[in-house]
Amino acid sequence: MMTDIITETIDRIKMTVPEDRVLIKEPMGRHTSFRIGGPAEAFVLVNNEEELSAALAAVSGSGAEHMLIGNGSNLLVSDEGYPGIMIKLSGDFESITQCADDPHRIRAGAAALMSRVSAFLTERGLSGFEFASGIPGSIGGAVFMNAGAYGGEIKDVVRSVRVMDADGSNARDVSGEDMGFAYRHSKAQDGGMIILSAEMEFTPDDQSEIAARVSELSAKRNAKQPVNYPSAGSTFKRPVGGFAAALIEQSGLKGYRVGGAEVSEKHSGFVINTGGATCEDVLAVMRHVREKVLEDSGIELEPEVRLINCSL
Question: Active-site residue numbers?
Answer without folding.
Answer: 184, 234, 304
